[in-house]
Amino acid sequence: MMNTIKTLLATTFAATITLAAAPAMAADYLPVGPQTNVALSTVTGGGWSLCYSASMGSAIGNSAAAAISNCTGDRLMLAGRVTGSDTLLALAQAPRADVLFDTGAANNGVFHLANGTNWFNADNWSWGFVGAGQSLTKYQCGIGPANGSMCIHTVNGAGGYSINGMYTSTGYDKLVFQFVSGAVPEPATWGMMILGFGVVGAAMRRRAKVSRVAFAI
What we know:
Elements: H1 2-27, E1 35-39, H2 40-44, E2 48-55, H3 64-67, E3 75-82, E4 87-95, H4 96-99, E5 112-114, E6 117-121, E7 125-131, E8 150-154, E9 161-163, E10 166-168, E11 172-179, H5 187-216
Antiparallel strand pairs: 1-4, 2-11, 3-4, 3-11, 5-6, 6-7, 7-8, 8-9, 9-10
Helix pairs in contact: 1-5
């Protein structure tokens, strides 16, 4: 009986870990390289939480890191969309340190490659991304690739500037998400876990009853 209980415990524990992990693994959205025309629900349902949102027309200030200080996650995603749209026109994600890596406040041709994306960032200059192997002229937001790129001025009083090569300051939003991961198991998963522990509990109660009877004899 003891061996049976041990086997049940081991099996239930393994099943619990597997079932608890499966929904989270299925939900994580971790794209490599810039993406275009992605449903907002894909991002928010994939382990990401919105932590910064503003019109492209509003100035972010002279420091991206300071502007998004509420975004404390280890991974960040920068995205742009038509105001109020459920579709993100462009996005890219990487570890926080890479997204905010200082590439210098100059048209220096310097980019920081991370997760299939060329990132650039500097106070009093610009912040954004282009695809790996691509570049742009960094004139405090530059001229370069259209699809899969984004650039924001990090200059006091300056709004804008581009999403997928569309140079505008009105009618569009800049968004930042942080990765929170660890999706909560679905109700069906919890039910299976509870059932497993119930089986083990019943077996242990049965063993205790048998032991008492044997002792009485």
